[in-house]
What we know:
heterodimer; A: mainly alpha; B: mainly alpha
Amino acid sequence: MSSQSLGLAAARRLDRRRFLLSWFALPSSALAALLVGAVMLAALGTNPLTGYRALLSGAFGGSYALGSTAVKAVPLLLVGVGICIAFRANVFNIGGEGQIAMGGLAGAATALALPGLPGPVLIFLVLVAGAVAGGFWGAIPGAFKAYFSVNEILSTIMLNLVAVQLMNYLLAGPMVDRSSGSVGGLIPQTRLLPKQSWLPILVSGTQLHLGVVIAVLVAIGVYVLLWRTSFGFRVRAVGLSREAATYAGIPVRRTITLAMTLSGAMCGLAGSMLVFGSISHRMVTDGSLTGFTGSAGFNGIVVALFGALNPLWTILSAFIFAGLLVGGSAMQVATNVPADLIVALNGLVVVFVVSLEYVRRRARTFDVADRHRTPRSGVTAPEPASADADAGEGPT
Amino acid sequence: MSQFFTSAILTTTVAAGIQLAAPFLLAALGETMGQRSGVINLGVDGIMLLGAFGAYYTALHTHSLLLAALAGCGVGALLGLVTAVVSVSLKAEQGISGIGVYLFALGFSDLLFLKLVGTPLPINQLPAVKIPLLDRIPTVNGMFFEHSVLVYLAFVLVPVVAFVLNRTTYGLNIRAVGENPAAADSLGVSVTLIRYSTVIVGSTLAGLAGATLLIETGIFQENLTQSAGFIAVALVYFGAWRPVGVMAGALLYGLTEAVILSWKGLGIIPLSLSDLASTAPAVITVLALLTTARRFRQPAALGRPYERGG
């Protein structure tokens, strides 16, 4: 028992070292991406300083900008938190886009079916409906992975393709607003959702709505779930080593399925909030998933990685990346550089973060090697490969 | 339904299916090379997008489709090098780094498109080449032997890749590195070199796949590929890492898509259900993965970076 507690102490010290390393790795990834962005801006004939200044003031300058950024952060945060759950179990949920759409559809359908309910009840119901639908859309690839060994990256991508067509079908057919006929036929959108189902605005004069508070509370809840409950322990154990978890009697398959279900539920909740926190207060499709989600399903992955796969850090990370996205649109107006630049930079952040991971791993290997030399009997330093999942780590 | 089973409609449908399958096939063959050596490249869709843009830009300025296809290959090779550095040398988590490459290319291709192309004009069509003698066979000629060079190339590459993988020393090394890199390393095979080469060749094919898709479409647009690259990766799993299996998957996908397009055109599928019907290829792929996933074993070192003594 004593050797175990000594091992724990050592692991904790290692954790602190890695924590510092992650502090260094993540900001430098972002900085590197911004530098590449500056080069791109310069190549496009825009002064990078002018561009980034427009970006910053568009994202964080004034209460309206801050409100927009906070609202933009809601889907990113929820998807990011969902990604945290899945990645901790060592499953990759690339299906956020589809799960968001399913959540939005279920939420909208619920509100359209029960227009007479009082506000608080209806809002609660549409959010639950979104989470259930997203969870269902996540449970499918989760179960396929757990019970049939289907690669979840592929099945989630395929389900995205299914979801977009389903959304187009429902919004142009069964759920379409028949009153807004135009020359070219009906617009693929729902009718105006019941007013009491709109997410209430918290600060007048901004877009800041109730969803921001709910999303932050959910993120805190997921943190507690992952680190303070036995379910969270099982998820992380499965993510660290499926074999060891099996040996310890953890129901690995059920845990994987549940982790993906929860991950999908977070995305579905995000979808519901996208509909009921939108300015138009309808669900509209332009025929693509991105048109509805704003690529939150993919950007949420960036946010989660940048939040070190920890739901609490993901709150900050979501706010930063939402700022980039909101500011990107402002930059487009000011400098005529398409906001696509931000999407490209997000991709670079991902590449840099996972590449720097290796540098950190090597730093840790040396650390372990050092401690092998110090004469402290009874403490076996953890193998670098097996000590791979703490707050600063991605799944390996 | 009866109007579908006329020889003219069947011929055009099958021909369209083969044409639609070509970009998937090119990308999936490239991915097969990489995965047999143990590297998952999930950035295929992004590489296809940037390859397609490179091809479009070249075609607009040179009016040469050959140069356009080569530009697609060049862009692919360059991104392949980047992917190899990240996945092989920096030993990044391949599932995530690929998504990063995809996001980068998704944004960057549209950025370039908006900034460099003023008014998007369609480019020339690639003429169909009839194969002598074979094009005289009735009925079948229209299906199989009146395609563009790029479509033939995609299908010719199937036996070529199969031969390289199964009958050459290089192929043996690829498979060894994908199954047991430590053993291959101990025998003097450079794991790094083999993986760099397969990733770069595979990405070159992905770039060509993007160019092919562009030339078939005739014009670039945001997110031109619509996840075609991800489907290509799925087809590699579907085809159990064998070129012929991959070809079968690509044909199944292309033909399903063509049949649905044809049925929509004929009114067999009513307009109101056309979006729902478009889910069929993806649903079929998922179901196919479901049935094949347990049956075939993936390369043992797939997705695992190699570290000496690790």
